[in-house]
Amino acid sequence: MSSSTLVLDVSHSKRPLVFREIRFQPEWTLEHVKKKLEVVTGTLHSDFLIEVYDDRSQKIGEMVDDQQAVLGSLPIRNGYRLHIIDHREEDNSEDLIWKEDETNMVPKYQVPEASYAQREVSGRKFREEMLQAKTSSLSNNLNIHIGDRCFVSPDNRLATVRYIGMLPVNDLQTEFVGVQFDEPIGKNDGSYQGHYYFHCEPGYGSFVPYNRITKMQTIQPETENPTLEEL
Questions:
Q1: Which end of the chain has fewer surrounding CB within 10 Å, N or C?
Q2: pLDDT in the model for residue 94
């Protein structure tokens, strides 16, 4: 098989959506592939099996736990689909959110959308204003913009700013800067929890706490943040 990047779709046995055009490297081991799929789907790699389907949705086989095998040694081509079989018990599963909410059968009052939108004070407007204020504060405090060249601590790694904004970390919106490193020393391909905030080759992207970013024209002493890690 060619050494070029493989572009595959990913589906999930408990979720009604398909993650399109996810990039994989042929030299990755099965363990590496499963960890990549863990990031994409949110399901622990120890909790699923992988079936392989061709571009006509015909099953061609399963990936077995062979630590020595690499993705490029398997009969997989661009456009194929990796199907995750989640073998966890249904009870207390996080995937229950994908099931129909039976409470929607209970009549309840809802404020008409037009009336709610016209309210000067509402929970929705408060959340929107807070999110805009946080994002604006992040950009202004750092004085950085998309496309700026920067250093990332530790080690003052060279990178380009590709995203400035919020990420849903531990169910909270948290400020991060998405960067594309000059070398493959990152942690992702511009995606987090299955959503792409920017695009780059796997291993070149990371989401970094803003206090680890320094614009290229000024280098400051490295500081540590004990609460946030690079994503």
A1: N
A2: 40
